[in-house]
Amino acid sequence: MPQIDTAKPSPFVIRHREWGDFYAVFHIYDFCSRNMSVCGGKGVYGLLSCIERCSFLPCEPDRVLVRVQKLTPEKADQLIWVRARVHTSRAKGKQCFLVLRQQQFNVQALVAVGERASKQMVKFAANINKESIVDVEAMVRKVEQKIDSCTQQDVELHIERIFVISQAEPRLPLQLEDCVRPDGEGDEDGRATVNQDTRLDNRVIDLRTTTSQAIFRLQSGVCQLFRDTLTNKGFVEIQTPKIISAASEGGANVFTVSYFKTSAYLAQSPQLYKQMCICADFDKVFCVGPVFRAEDSNTHRHLTEFVGLDIELAFNYHYHEVIESITDTMVQIFKGLRDKFQTEIQTVGKQYPSEPFRFLEPTLRLEYTEGVAMLREAGVDMGDEEDLRSVYDTDFYVLDKYPLAVRPFYTMPDPNDKVCASLNKYSNSYDMFMRGEEILSGAQRIHDAQLLTERAIHHNIDLEKIKSYIDSFRYGAPPHGGGGIGLERVCMLYLGLHNVRQVSMFPRDPKRLTP
Amino acid sequence: MPMYQVKPVFGDDIKTDLPTCMYKLPNIHAQRSASGCSEHALQNGTEVVDPAFRDLEVRQDKIMRRLYELKAAVDGLAKTVTTPDADLDQTVTSLSQSPTATSFRGTADLDSLLGKDLGALRDIVINANPARPPLTLLVLHAMLCQRYRVLSSVHVHSSVSGVPAQLLSCLGPRHADSYVRQRFQLGFTLIWKDVSKLQMKFSIQNMCPIEGEANVARFLFRLVAPYPSDPALATLVDSWVDTAFFQLAEGSAKERSAVLRALNGALGRDPWLAGPELSLADIACYCCVLQTGPAASSPANVQRWLKACENLGHFGPANPLLQ
């Protein structure tokens, strides 16, 4: 609490025991013990209370905040305002060095004792808790020697006024530098890297790192490119229900929810509804939405809830039209990422180095039997994805014509391949792989109600449960096929990361339900 | 005794057949088929058709066939006159790219040359830089297609951002059967990639990658025709191939003119560069000569030889890329 020193001649100067002199307060706020507000024409630093932040600075209504990204030598010798987080602050005698961070960009700032700043101000700046949000008025100055530790390497801010908008608690559960440190480096210097569970528990802080910002911007780009490419091809976006009455992929891995007096299931995939849309003459559809799989597997690539990007289309004469459409969409997505998101890819590469993603256009398509033959040829020494990679140099390829026995009941058998009249060995189905891991499982679907019933019986599926599904094919259904990819898995494999949780903002797995 | 006797007016040996049927209806079944083929009566050759008409048709067919044969023979002779020692079989079938061509080598030959088939399509993968398209390999690809069922495909690698349209279609139109890879004996995959040297990969287990257009050309040529058994001739072929790639394609202007002079000299003596027939040396030199400059700027013998090569028709695939 400031004490008014009545001994001083002017009633408009207030002397604070710790903070020194400052001009008075044409204040409006409350002097509660936590928020010392300083404001008014000549306040230079301090904490701001909630009230001020909303109705701010009536004397400077046209204050414009400059983005840290725009702090370049062009702005040298200008007086500007910046709002950013305090990444680090370090006092050295009469100076305090701060690094101010805004998303992926950071800049060095300096408070030095002089005509604009007092010793107490320097001390105040040094004591600001990390991650607090501050408003800073500063002069942009060019530097002779590049500052390597910041993204804005050519300039530095000389602070004249600094206010804390939102203060962070002094003890943070994890340190951002530790989060960004690449895995091998930490061990050498004895500095820690943060373990994944801690990161996920404090996701709000972990998501502030440059790497996370880059990853999720790239993920947003994937979604955007997916929508744009398909819309340009004439697809219609649909939304399918997620509370359904029957399990779409099989009864084992499905979540049950209580639904008034009965129970219902959370959709494992939009499969049934996509197909019904095709039967309803939408011809080409796609949908982006959550997918729920109750798989109790704790692996690096399984989540219980993830975002599914699904495609379904009717074709004219051969199901390869579907494969071409899907692979072309994937190639357009890869090209878009390669051309427009290089900065993000490089940023992620600093913490998680990996080989750049390679692909061919048009996409390489091999048959399942060839893949098996290559495995046999390679023996145990080399995995078959390495073989493909060394020959064709691509991280993305399609394996076509899987055996019928391993595919779901609605997969169309291959009409050209009959061992005997009723026994098909192969099916019109395909899988797509990125960096050797499967990302899409698709097929031509059976569009004839009779054949579908036979196959369901063959797989011992209760016909009552899928009655409405089979009914949708009784009134004229075009031949169609499609497939679905997981957004997180695609991003993970494109960037060469090793755990899908790094690519999911708030991941869900058998052991994690919060945040 | 009869009362009145009349002398017979006519002889009694005339037979008359008495009808057994009261009303005769035409057979409706017979009539239908008869009316059905009345439209085709002319081609049918039944007794309805005038035999003379039929003979005329047959004669006309025979004449047309002979005319075509004569025309083909004349074309072949015309080419032989301008192209010394050309193989007549090749001129007749050279322009057809159909995979069921009669000059067809069996899978057994491929097995002996490339090793046993393990169930996967044997794929020859070539990584080439779009800035320097390998014309020799395109010509050899065309020759391969005549001998075997080849599944050709062109891809663009992600290290290259864009490729002109003619490079995408340089291996010809897509085969109708390309849905089923197993129906083909050999695969030929051309990938446009940002590589410094042309590279070929095949059968990783038994082979290391082959680098350089000259070496890949030698490999492919062996699948088409055997190298000459005479070692001197084989060496001559090899030396011309090397000269073409190292000095003509990549050498300085002085080296190039020296090679052109050498070519001129060699072609003055013999119609082809090595031996009595077209060989790999001719293919390589043709592509490199035309890549370095237009045909008109080369010496006289070289121009004559260039013309002779073109007449053989193998160099069709290379021409659109030379413009």
UniProtKB/TrEMBL annotation, chain A:
It is an enzyme of class 6 (ligase). It is found in: Cytoplasm. The keyword Transferase does not apply. Residues 216-515 form the Aminoacyl-transfer RNA synthetases class-II family profile domain. It comes from the Eukaryota. GO terms for molecular function: aspartate-tRNA ligase activity; ATP binding; RNA binding. CDD domains: AspRS_cyto_N (cd04320), AsxRS_core (cd00776). The keyword Acetylation applies. InterPro entries: Aa-tRNA-synt_II (IPR004364), aa-tRNA-synth_II (IPR006195), aa-tRNA-synth_II/BPL/LPL (IPR045864), Asp-tRNA_synthase_2 (IPR004523), Asp/Asn-tRNA-synth_IIb (IPR002312), NA-bd_OB-fold (IPR012340). Keywords: Acetylation, Aminoacyl-tRNA synthetase, ATP-binding, Cytoplasm, Ligase, Nucleotide-binding, Phosphoprotein, Protein biosynthesis. Its EC number is 6.1.1.12. Its main location: cytoplasm. One of its GO terms (cellular component) is cytosol. PANTHER family: ASPARTATE--TRNA LIGASE, CYTOPLASMIC, ASPARTYL-TRNA SYNTHETASE. Homodimer. Part of a multisubunit complex that groups tRNA ligases for Arg (RARS1), Asp (DARS1), Gln (QARS1), Ile (IARS1), Leu (LARS1), Lys (KARS1), Met (MARS1) the bifunctional ligase for Glu and Pro (EPRS1) and the auxiliary subunits AIMP1/p43, AIMP2/p38 and EEF1E1/p18. NCBIfam families: aspS_nondisc, PRK05159.1. Belongs to the class-II aminoacyl-tRNA synthetase family. Type 2 subfamily. Catalyzes the specific attachment of an amino acid to its cognate tRNA in a 2 step reaction: the amino acid (AA) is first activated by ATP to form AA-AMP and then transferred to the acceptor end of the tRNA. This is Aspartate--tRNA ligase, cytoplasmic.
UniProtKB/TrEMBL annotation, chain B:
Residues 251-310 form the Glutathione S-transferase C-terminal domain. It comes from the Eukaryota. It holds the Pfam family GST_C. It is found in: Cytoplasm, Cytosol; Nucleus. GO terms for biological process: apoptotic process; cell differentiation; translation. Transmembrane segments: none annotated. Residues 120-211 form the AIMP2 thioredoxin-like domain. GO terms for cellular component: aminoacyl-tRNA synthetase multienzyme complex; cytosol; nucleus. CDD domains: GST_C_AIMP2. Keywords: Apoptosis, Cytoplasm, Developmental protein, Differentiation, Nucleus, Phosphoprotein, Protein biosynthesis, Ubl conjugation. Residues 1-45 form the AIMP2 lysyl-tRNA synthetase binding domain. Part of the multisynthetase complex (MSC), a multisubunit complex that groups tRNA ligases for Arg (RARS1), Asp (DARS1), Gln (QARS1), Ile (IARS1), Leu (LARS1), Lys (KARS1), Met (MARS1) the bifunctional ligase for Glu and Pro (EPRS1) and the auxiliary subunits AIMP1/p43, AIMP2/p38 and EEF1E1/p18. Interacts (via N-terminus) with KARS1. Interacts with EPRS1. Forms a linear complex that contains MARS1, EEF1E1, EPRS1 and AIMP2 that is at the core of the multisubunit complex. Binds FUBP1 (via C-terminus). Required for assembly and stability of the aminoacyl-tRNA synthase complex. Mediates ubiquitination and degradation of FUBP1, a transcriptional activator of MYC, leading to MYC down-regulation which is required for aveolar type II cell differentiation. Blocks MDM2-mediated ubiquitination and degradation of p53/TP53. Functions as a proapoptotic factor. PANTHER family: AMINOACYL TRNA SYNTHASE COMPLEX-INTERACTING MULTIFUNCTIONAL PROTEIN, AMINOACYL TRNA SYNTHASE COMPLEX-INTERACTING MULTIFUNCTIONAL PROTEIN 2. This is Aminoacyl tRNA synthase complex-interacting multifunctional protein 2. It comes from Oncorhynchus kisutch (Coho salmon). The lineage of its organism: Eukaryota, Metazoa, Chordata, Craniata, Vertebrata.
